[in-house]
Amino acid sequence: MQTISDKKQRWALKDVIFLAIIAIFFGVIYEVWGLSYNVIAATPLKPFANDITLGVWLMAGPLAGLMLKKVGATLIGELLAAVVEMFLFSQWGAANIISGFIQGFASELGFAVTGYKNWSKIALFFSTISATIITFIWDLFQSGYLDYHFNLLILLFIVRFLSIGFFAGILVYWINQLVSQSGILNR
């Protein structure tokens, strides 16, 4: 016997289309945003370039999760946006897929913590925390952060949390509010 909850978790065609639109939109933004990373990396702020800019690269997943309210929407949304970025000749090439998976998985965990029963500010807050921690651990090994001094690591972590908190938290919440008010998701 199907429950109402089961019906809400099923993916409809409009969910898939909306997810694709989010992925394409953010894939383009991600590719353009790479220029910001390059500009910052060309200055004495180079060690901070990744952490300052990272929040933008984590927006697609949480936005997909909030809008679609489906298990896995956050992970798939982030992964697809990374694939779109890669196909737009991203400077990071196929590594985008790995980063997109890790970022999407990290953001998805925040929604999973609430048992997928809360799709509001609380879940989004958990999503920003889990994304900050997991992506930072990833960069400890993948980006050579382990070679940095401990005080710099603390500073990078704080900068990363602020970036993710603003872009993938506050800004995503505002975008979701605007889209919800437009009524486009109810059609």
Automatic annotation (TrEMBL):
The keyword Transmembrane helix applies. The lineage of its organism: Bacteria, Bacillati, Bacillota, Bacilli, Lactobacillales. Keywords: Membrane, Transmembrane, Transmembrane helix. InterPro entries: ABC_thiamin-permease_prd. The chain crosses the membrane at residues 12-32, 52-68, 80-102, 122-141, 153-175. This is ECF transporter S component.
